[in-house]
Amino acid sequence: MSHKLNFFEPVIIIGGGPVSAADVALVQRFSSKTIAADSGADTADALGLDVFAVLGDMDSVSEDGLNRNIGKTTRISEQNSTDFEKCIRSSDAPIYLCIGVLGGRIDHQLAALNVLAKYPDRQILLIGAEDVILLCPQDFSVNLPVDTRLSLFPVGPVLGMYSDGLKWELNGVDMDSAGKISASNLTSATRTCISYDQGALLLILPVETLPELLQSL
Fold it and tell me: What average pLDDT score do residues 53-82 get?
């Protein structure tokens, strides 16, 4: 693209993976703008979701999908990135609410997680049927009910961990994708704080916590 799409509000990205009407209803509470990643245009149409733009290499969207979105489609032909990454790279928004990128093929999900680590300066939330996943800010706090499930997965080494408000605290430990992780931890207070000095850390919460999560970002 010769220029980026600029948004001053959260933007929805819809991929070609599994998406339900409940997913659409959830993200539309927080945004009125949608970008479709390639065949996400077909998914959006099936769910009655109007799109602002369709981005990707256009190798999977249907002809009907292309015809419905004449004037909204930008073909980005290079094959070194996924259509989802093309959407992130080709736009600027304060927050990305991404549906249709979790569930379905595991390689697509892993590629989406790679994008989180690759663009640490963006607030990208991957929203699925069960979970919301994001790159945890290095100094983060959120208000959640006690006993909310909270998982932390390092992407490579994570140094200088500190937590307050978890059932199993993570103070003074280093984490690594091939070593220490924190799966299915629980909040032990109504306010949970997490910080770390260096690295990239994925935060996974129940999808029902999206409103509280957005308030904390």
Answer: 88
User: With contact defined as beta carbons under 8 Å apart, do 144 and 190 qualify?
Assistant: yes
Task: Enter the tokens of residue 56.
Answer: 């990707």
Give the architecture-level CATH label for domain 139-216.
Sandwich (2.60)
pLDDT at 1: 53
Judge whether 3 and 24 are in contact, CB under 8 Å. no
Beta strands in the chain (DSSP E): 5-6, 11-14, 33-37, 53-56, 73-75, 91-92, 96-99, 124-127, 131-135, 139-143, 149-154, 162-164, 182-186, 191-195, 201-206
Do 150 and 194 contact (CB within 8 A), yes or no?
no
pLDDT mean across residues, the chain: 93
CA gap 129, 206 in Å, rounded = 9
pLDDT at 141: 97
Residue spans of the domains in the chain: they are 5-129, 139-216
- Does pLDDT of 159 surpass 90? yes
CATH number of 5-129: 3.40.50.10240
Residues listed for the chain: 217
Is the alpha carbon torsion for 201, 206, 209, 210 positive or negative? Answer: positive
CA distance 24 to 20: 7
The mean pLDDT value for 51-57 works out to 92
CA angle, residues 109, 112, 116, in degrees to nearest 5: 135
